[in-house]
Design a protein that fits this description.
Layout lengths: L1 H7 L7 H8 L5 H36 L11 H13 L8 H19 L8 H23 L3 H7 L1 H4 L7 H20 L1 H7 L3 H6 L4 H23 L5 H12 L7 H21 L8 H18 L7
Helix pairs in contact: 1-2, 1-3, 2-3, 3-9, 3-12, 3-13, 3-14, 4-5, 4-6, 4-12, 5-6, 5-12, 9-12, 13-14, 14-15
């Protein structure tokens, strides 16, 4: 229903019947062009990025045993963004933004873990280290944009606020492949993820290779975040909202992998739809919409009693 609504609303409002007809090759050519060439690719990008961010979020939260430990809050988003912007402004030696985003996300993760040495992935030291790393990469991004021509800065702008407007098809396709593989890998790790929510001694006693599984989960979260940032920029609060919605609808016994993935896709679709239509013809970037929603959501998480494990 959300997808049909997304395809129906915009500068020109279409009926659901017209949308369905255009998707099956019927209807007039103008409607078909509007749906198939303009709105459908953006819808796919929204679904993929939202799902990837939310999946990365639930993995990182499980790894850190902390519901605030999303890739955005611990600096991975900003690292990926800084490297992607470096590629666009000419500092990436011709490397494509997706590859640079992966390098940036990996660098941010390594720095965060290095600075949080001694506490592993648990505790507020890990969160504070990530916030510091994210702040540094954010400052580097702003410095790069301040030193380039205005046209170049405008080209890099979507990667700084989060936008799904005119996203490159190659990056979306790469994200789709990465998301499919990442979801399969996460489901394969489902039992280990459930055990990782307990103390290391308990998880080891139940047959989990804790260090190896932590590394696998971290790498999976980093790759998913990097691919999503390469498409939409830093829309990391979806990684906070999606898993929370999934937990409210799922059993506390298991990590809600599929539910979080679907919830993230839904949140991104609705956020981008709101950004496109609420103040039309002015378009609000999806990153701003999610920030407006995610900020109060974050405060709500901090203020309410914690009743379940991450």
């Amino acid at each position: 229903a959300a997808c049909v609504l997304y395809l129906s609303l915009g500068s020109v409002t279409l009926s659901p019947n017209a949308v369905v007809a255009s998707l099956v090759g019927q209807g007039d050519s103008m409607t078909a062009f509007m749906v198939q060439q303009l709105r459908l690719p953006r819808l796919i990008a929204a679904c993929f990025t939202g799902a990837a961010f939310a999946l990365a979020g639930v993995l990182m939260q499980t790894l850190a045993r902390n519901r605030l430990a999303t890739p955005g809050i611990i600096g991975i988003d900003n690292g990926a963004t800084a490297f992607a912007v470096a590629s666009i402004v000419g500092l990436g030696v011709g490397i494509a933004p997706p590859a640079m985003a992966l390098a940036g996300a990996t660098t941010a993760a390594v720095l965060t873990f290095g600075l949080a040495a001694g506490s592993g992935t648990q505790g507020y030291r890990f969160i504070v280290a990530g916030i510091g790393v994210g702040a540094v990469f954010g400052a580097v991004t702003q410095l790069m944009l301040a030193r380039v021509a205005i046209d170049t800065a405008n080209a890099a702008y979507p990667w700084t606020v989060g936008s799904l407007n005119a996203r490159p098809a190659s990056a979306v396709k790469l994200l789709g492949i990465g998301l499919a593989l990442g979801l399969v890998a996460a489901l394969a790790l489902a039992r280990s993820l459930t055990l990782l929510r307990f103390k290391d001694a308990i998880a080891s006693g139940l047959g989990t290779a804790v260090k190896a599984r932590r590394l696998q989960v971290l790498l999976l979260s980093v790759v998913l975040t990097a691919l999503a940032v390469a498409v939409a920029g830093p829309v990391g609060l979806v990684a906070l909202i999606g898993p929370e919605i999934a937990r409210s609808l799922s059993s506390a016994r298991h990590v809600p992998i599929l539910a979080a993935t679907l919830a993230g896709a839904l949140v991104m679709v609705l956020a981008d739809l709101a950004g496109r239509t609420l103040f039309a013809p002015i378009e609000i970037p999806v990153g701003i919409v999610t920030a407006v929603v995610g900020g109060p959501w974050l405060l709500w998480i901090l203020m309410r009693p914690q009743r379940s494990r991450p």
